[in-house]
Amino acid sequence: MRPLTASEIRGNWASLLLPINQDDSIDYGRLSAEIDFLIDCRTDGIYSNGTACEFFTQTEDEFDRVSTMVAERCESAGRPFELGASHTSPQTTLSRVRRAASLRPGAIQVILPDWAPVGDDEAIAFFSRLAEAAEGIGLVLYNPPHAKRVLTPPVFEKLRRAVPSLVGLKVYDGPASWYAQMRDRAEGLSVFVPGQHLATGVLQGASGSYSNVACLHPAGAQAWWRLTQTDLPAALSLEHRVVAFLSRHVRPYISEHGYCNAACDKFLAAIGGWADIGTRLRWPYRFIPQEEADRLRPLAREILPEILPS
Length: 310
What we know:
Blueprint: E1 11-15, H1 28-41, E2 45-48, H2 60-77, E3 81-84, H3 90-101, E4 107-110, H4 120-134, E5 138-143, H5 153-162, E6 166-171, H6 176-185, E7 190-192, H7 198-203, E8 208-211, H8 213-216, H9 218-230, H10 232-249, H11 252-255, H12 261-272, H13 290-303
Parallel strand pairs: 1-2, 1-8, 2-3, 3-4, 4-5, 5-6, 6-7
Helix pairs in contact: 1-2, 3-4, 4-5, 5-6, 9-10, 12-13
């Protein structure tokens, strides 16, 4: 597809999740069916190799195969897509960006180098080299709260001015003062906030979300995005229930039981039951048992019928 501008990267984007067999291999058959389902849901976009796709566990051959599957299916169906090219090594990220660019996605997502935290000048040098490798395709910075360095609005502005190819951000949001700074400092960038804060983000001027709520159900998350465009008070009311459900029934698996974020993303998909993905993560990461998802599914449908219709 043609490269997307910042203004075109908006709405509810669904993450690809990685189905894992008991022998720790990727189940490409189940992955193929998942891609087809996401396309059929007609979300505003699909992206690969974020946290939920366990980019940090993939070999380079696996990365290429997953990226190619997403690109070919989405291109054929005419659906917008981004390819994640993240890696903890900047050299490997650069190589992944070059290969992702050859598949002509709408944009390419990357994290900052994640062993030794980078300074401002190093971040600019990093993105400048990636921009050359991306061959005109825009870059999206994935800067989650657990990154070695979480950037502030003034640094986003510095990056935006230095690297025009930076078109978007995937970040954790903050209070109203944070949004005010971002409206000033990140003008001209697509700013995506966490899925559970979608309505608040729209109210404050965000562009959309690379959505964990889409892990729960991509079609339900897409319906919520449409609601933010037609009835924002109702969308904000739904957000209160989404946040309450996640805080009470999902977040404790991270804060109290020590599971990683990818485990909770797959757990949400298992609760939603919309595809045969499973909760299993690749070694050495622990995963939440499927039985826990089965237990919570009726409660999720009761609390969030707009997201999870019975």
